Structures
1.
Amino acid sequence: MKSIQVKNLYKSYNQENFVVKDASFQIEEGEFFVLVGPSGCGKSTILRMIAGLEEISKGELYIGERKANLLSPSERELSMVFQNYALYPHLSVKENIIFGLHVKKVPKKERELRCYEVAEMLQLTNYLHRKPRELSGGQRQRVALARAIVSRAPICLMDEPLSNLDAKLRAHMRAEIKQIQRSLGITMVYVTHDQTEAMTMGDRMMVLKDGEVQQVGTPLQVYNKPNNPFVATFIGNPPMNIQNGTIRGGERELVLEGMKPYKLKQDYGVHFPERIMVGIRPESIHLANENSAADERYIVEVKNVEILGNDTLVSFLVGTKEWFMRLNGQWYITIGDRIPISFDFNHVAIFDEGTGELLKAPESREMFSLRKEAVSR
Ligand SMILES: Nc1ncnc2c1ncn2[C@@H]1O[C@H](COP(=O)(O)OP(=O)(O)O)[C@@H](O)[C@H]1O
Ligand SMILES: [Mg+2]
């Protein structure tokens, strides 16, 4: 298994503007590393530069100990899975799976052995003689996966491999890919625009915007302490609510657009600039009750309600912004209701309005754990 190191990586397709700017990151051996960001932010470009399919404009790439900028794709010893699977339509499933082994001149017996092993692992044994067109989307996806695994390359690169699948199959394949990666111990670089995949699959993720790295961290680090409002709203669904505001009266009073002023009760040990942005996660907003302090109660008018079975999502306008709150359980709330809400200011994030920098993270949440005796690992 191998690590990957990228130092000050740049890419320009036209010698004018850079679509990847100064990206630096390290991927550990055996790690599941997710590149996530909106469409067009440079994820595939970075992946293709690691693969050797795209020239590096500036910067350094190391695969294992070896500088890899100028290595050919095959010298980099990695396998790749694309969104469109890129299966050969005229070849059978089996031939598709072992195609790369032919090219690498792996002996026939070994090819067969590896093919059956991986087919077993991915439940493709009964389909080995079919053509790709005779398979469902999920099965085709598995063939693409099998072809990558059979190569036994220490690094696997995947570019949005699940985007063509329906929601249920996607959820299933998320778990499957993660388990296979674990059991083989491969180093995985996985590209997606889907924050759910990044949260659920990655050991760590790197969030990108306009070719620039916004944050690298474990899913919970990124969720709990987003570096800026972009990350805060990109990771998490529904997104973190963000509101512009001002701090007045020498850090004593916070005024959010569309809300009554709030007296800050605590010294947060940070000097806040006058103009800030406040962020609060939907699950940190509650229905106010008699116990809520009067200055932490806000009356809002319900704009939309979605009952998700176990949770109820309620949205309302604060100033001109739509906010979301997530309530546990099933609630009789209808559009147009005026309801009292409250939230604890210890649970808000505060960002600098100018630079976007995180000045105060929400208070850390409780991480639940089982008693030691209850777990065997
Ligand atoms: N071969 C290419 N030639 C010119 N521009 C490209 C090429 N490939 C990608 N781009 C541009 O580079 C930017 C990043 O693209 P890409 O890496 O494909 O983004 P993502 O995978 O995050 O959606 C986009 O603006 C895209 O239009
Ligand atoms: Mg892409």
Note: The mean pLDDT is 92.
2.
Amino acid sequence: MRLIPLLLAALLIPAAARADAPRVVADIAPVHSLVAQVMAGVGAPDLVLPANVSPHHAALKPSQARALAEADLVVWIGPGLSPGLARAVKVLSDGAAQLTLLENDATTQLPARKAEDFLLVVDPGHDHDGHGDHDGHGHTHGPIDPHAWLSPDNAARWLDLIAAELSRLDPAHADIYARNAEASRVRLDEVRQIAAARISGLQGTPLMVYHDAFQYFENAFGLTVIGAISDSDDARFGPAHIAALRDRLSDAGVACFLTEPVADTRLIDAVSSGTALPLAVLDPLGAEIPPGPAHYPALLQAMVAALEPCGS
Ligand SMILES: [Zn+2]
């Protein structure tokens, strides 16, 4: 019964509602998209890191610093993705609430892979569904791979976390936040199923990557990556590792090299030159996709489309 008056209030006084909406900033475009979906009809978040720079090495512009300083809530992956942003949040967003997604108990966390993790023999029967071993409840050791937004399951849980945090700060719009989160989860599940069907043919196909950014995506969609040039913090592995990758490339029958728009192509050449290996450019941040509510589903679709050259 409380729903009807709240709905009416939202319809009748949109201007007032907007003025009262919490000021929210999000770190990267995919997270910004999830927040924008939950806030739809109430307000819109600010995006603090542009998608055309690596969040691992990002520095803030004055306008972004101002958004952080004025924020009521910061929704971000956390210091593990962007140490530069972590310093800024600490200084500028002192009084703001923070929702640190990577560290949340609801988040599936995968341990960052090391060079040796890639140079094991690939077992074709290896369980890659991502729901078994690493359930994100404290069983992981060492640093966590920060690219957790590439798990649609994480994104679905984050919609609820975002709605809960917004409702805490802005109880007047709690019903809208909850309804938006639920509708977004349903849409996200549809997009995930379509994406999974589209790349189901790549299951078990050995792939190599430039930057080890796709572990969550691999687990969600049953992909098998057997080599990387740089680790999940985007720090480069050593020359011996690069040489081993070269050998591995031919031995394992790698079908495709996944690169990013910002990748150093000289290193990819060093590993793959002399082979006719297809390159697939996957952008985990969706720099070419406009920020906003539609960004996240479009990102999943774009990544799946980019994988098409890898299928034979
Ligand atoms: Zn990355």
Note: The pocket of zinc ion is lined by residues 56, 147, 211, 213, 234 (CB under 6 Å).
